[in-house]
Design goal:
heterodimer, A: mainly beta, 11 strands, B: 111 residues, mainly beta, 6-stranded mixed sheet, 0% helix
């Protein structure tokens, strides 16, 4: 079946511009996560959605970052007034909250964001 | 604080066995994952441990000791395609939702 998809796959933007990154989770997955992976770094948790609500936004690095999820499906991560330090790969993952007693998260291919 | 440590890089020979270690200190523990990530691709699930002991799945095995805050991933009969980064991740902090990742171990398999 279809996996997690993300768009765009690559985005180059000028410093100060706003960007929107999109994630389509696996159909039926109630949980959705956003992570950021900077060059040579581990994945950094940004935000978690259960359905349309976001019980954990603790990883958002600043108030320039926001995310929403509508219809319990598609999610959009918005970065306002982008800075060069925002350059990274943004990964989305989804999961059935409990699968075989585990919490396996399925990752999308990511969006590579470059801020010039 | 939350801390997950794993070696930055490892090399191994095709056909050999390699063990990648991971130690963690988190304010809660609800399981440990290993993911494989090839360059430029998304992480893919390898294993999940929540109880102490060894979980075997084909050429890959994962071990957990909760009392020691320690896990390892064992890869047997290495193949060139196993060259990738291996990510250790813990569900900690009292939540069932947030994976805390280590920086990953880049494994290079040589002929």
């Amino acid at each position: 079946g279809a996996g997690v998809s993300q768009s765009p796959s690559n985005k180059v933007t000028e410093k100060g511009k706003d960007v929107e990154l999109r994630c389509d989770p696996i159909s039926g997955h109630t949980a959705l996560y956003w992570y950021r992976q900077s060059l040579g770094q581990g994945l950094e948790f940004l935000i978690y959605f259960q359905g349309n609500s976001a019980p954990d936004k603790s990883g958002l690095p600043s108030d320039r970052f926001s995310a929403e999820r509508t219809g319990g499906s598609v999610s959009t991560l918005t970065i306002q007034r982008t800075q060069q330090e925002d350059s990274a790969v943004y990964l989305c993952a989804s999961s059935l909250e409990e699968v075989r007693g585990s919490y396996e998260q399925y990752f999308g291919p990511g969006t590579r964001l470059t801020v010039t | 604080g939350q801390n997950i440590d794993q070696p930055t890089e490892m090399t191994a020979t095709e056909g050999a066995i390699v063990q990648i270690n991971c130690t963690y200190q988190t304010s809660g523990f609800n399981g440990l994952f290993w993911y494989q990530q090839h360059a430029g691709e998304a992480p893919t699930f390898l294993s999940y441990n929540v109880l102490d002991g060894l979980e075997e799945k084909g050429r890959f095995s994962s071990f957990l000791s909760r009392s020691k805050g320690y896990s390892y991933l064992l890869l047997k009969e290495l193949q060139m395609k196993d060259s990738a980064s291996y990510l250790c991740a813990v569900i900690g902090g009292g939540g069932y939702n947030k994976l805390i990742f280590g920086a990953g171990t880049r494994l290079a398999v040589h002929p």
